[in-house]
Specification:
mainly alpha; 6 helices
């Protein structure tokens, strides 16, 4: 149940990005749901490979290159989907930063919600 809430709220966060940044467009909530799923799969399967391949650059930049990897995956998701478009890498960078921050807020809120529910039930 928690994963469905996270998916729904993450899609809502992605939809809100189109209002925050004009360089990001989403055609509807269904496109946001699919884009959220694709971003999640890219983070699950492609991100670890990119992190290992770019480890020297990441170490030299003291981890800041991970922001570039996140933006690249965000941009890659928009290239794979028709209903989710990012105009440039700069918009992908801003969008991935905001989307990551909103993801942290969502994770924190859901953790508090579900831990409070588990403490109430016997």
């Amino acid at each position: 149940m928690k994963i469905l809430f996270k998916w729904f709220l993450s899609a809502f966060a992605l939809m809100s990005l189109s209002y925050i940044d004009a360089g990001i467009t989403i055609n509807g909530f269904e496109s946001a749901m699919i884009a959220t799923l694709v971003i999640g799969f890219l983070n699950l399967f492609v991100r670890p490979v990119l992190v290992v391949l770019t480890l020297p650059v990441t170490l030299i930049s003291l981890g800041l290159f991970l922001f570039v990897i996140n933006a690249f995956l965000f941009w890659m998701a928009s290239a794979l989907l028709e209903g989710f478009q990012v105009q440039s890498f700069a918009h992908a960078m801003l969008g991935s930063l905001i989307y990551s921050f909103l993801g942290l807020v969502i994770d924190s809120a859901l953790e508090r919600l579900f831990s409070a529910q588990s403490q109430e039930s016997p």
